[in-house]
Amino acid sequence: MGFLRQFVFLSLIGICFLTACKNNKISNDIYDSITQVEAFTSEIANRDLSFHIYLPEQYDKSKNYPVLYLLHGHGGHDDDWFSLEEGLVKTILDSLFLDNKIPEVIAVSLNADNTWYIDAQVPMETIYMKEFMPFIESVYLDQTNKPLRVLAGNSAGGYGALRFGLIYPEIFDKVILLSPAAYYPSPPEISSSRKIDPFKMNGKFNDSIWKSYSYVNLLQLENSELSDSNFYLSTGDDDVYGILEVVSQIDKRFKSFEIPLETTVINGGHSWDVWRNRFAFDLVRIFNALENND
After folding, report:
1. The pLDDT of residue 294
2. Closest C-alpha to 69, from 58, 47, 85, 54
3. Residue 13: which of 101, 87, 123, 125 has the closest Cα?
4. What's the mean pLDDT when you consider all of the chain?
C-alpha cells in the first residue's frame, strides 16, 4: 500500500473497543486479563528497571504466545502504554481478542527513561536486547519455539522501534511505527531530542551524533533479512512536531530499498488518540495476514 491519507479517524477496528474505552475497562466477568508492574535487575545499568506486563486470562507459560514489545516516548515511562489516560493497552487487547481479531498475547513495556533506546550514557539498546528481552522470554515463555515478536513504539519510542527493526530483523517479525521522531538530517528546534544528553557534545546538541544513529545510515547496511520484514508506519496529519514529513521520507526511502512497508496518515495530532487507533488497526492487519498465510 502506498502513502495513504485516511481522513476517517475511527476505523471499524477502532469502533470495536470504543465503548470499552468510555468506561476505561472491560468487565472482569467477560475477560480477566492480567496487568502487573514488575522489575528486573540490569547488570549493565547496575540497578533495577521497572516494566509493565499484560498477560492473558488463564496465562499458561507452556503456551507459545506472541509477544508485543511496546516502546514509550520521550518523557514517558513503562506505564504509558498501560495508562487509562494514554495507551489503554489492556482495553485494546482484551477487546480485539474478544472480537476474534487477534489471539491471546503477552505485551510488555520497559521504563527506558529518555534514552531514546540508543547506546549512549545509558546503553539502553544493549540493555533491551541482551538483558530485558531474554529475561522476559525466560520468565514468561517456555522458549521451546521462537515466539512471534511484534515491536511497537510511539514518538521517541517509534524512533527506537525503527532502529531496532532495521538492526534486528531476525528478531522482530513485525514493527509498528507510530509517529516516529526519526528526523533526518536533524530534528527541529521543537524536538525534545535536542534537550537530552544522548545527542549532546560539550553540553550542546550535536548534529553529527544525531546523524550517526540515523535510520538512513542503517539502510545503507546490507541486510537481506529486511526483505522479509514488515513495517507499519503512521502519523496524524496535524502533528505539530513535523512527523508528517518524517513519515513521507521514511516511506520513500523504504520503497527505494524495497523493504515492505504500509504507510497511513489519519486525521489527528501527536497524541494517543492517533496512536491507539493505528496500533489496534495494525495489530489486526498483522494477525489477519498471518492467518491467511497459514
Report:
1. 57
2. 54
3. 101
4. 90
Q: Which of 4, 1, 7 is nearest to 274 (CA)?
A: 7
SS3 per residue for the chain: CCEEEECCCCCHHHHHHHHHHHHCCCCCCCCCCEEEEEEEEECCCCEEEEEEEEECCCCCCCCCCCEEEEECCCCCCCCHHHCCCCCCHHHHHHHHHHCCCCCCCEEEEECCCCCCCCECCCEHHHHHHHHHHHHHHHHHCCCCCCCCEEEEEECHHHHHHHHHHHHCCCCCCEEEEECCCCCCCCCCCCCHHHHCHHHEECCEECHHHHHHCCHHHHHCCCCHHHHHCEEEEEEECCCCCCHHHHHHHHHHHHHHCCCCEEEEEECCCCCHHHHHHHHHHHHHHHHHHHHHHC
- The pLDDT assigned to 54 comes to 98
Res. 260: pLDDT tops 70 = yes
Torsion of CA 258, 262, 263, 264, to 10 degrees: 170
Determine the average pLDDT of the residues in 121-145: 96
Phi, psi (degrees; rounded to nearest 5) at 119: -90, 100
Provide the sign of the torsion angle of the four alpha carbons 257, 263, 265, 268, taken in this order: negative
Q: For the segment 206-238, what is each residue's pLDDT rounded down to a tens digit?
A: 999 999 999 999 998 877 788 777 999 999 999
pLDDT score for 220: 87
101-128 per-position pLDDT tens digit: 999 999 999 999 999 999 999 999 999 9
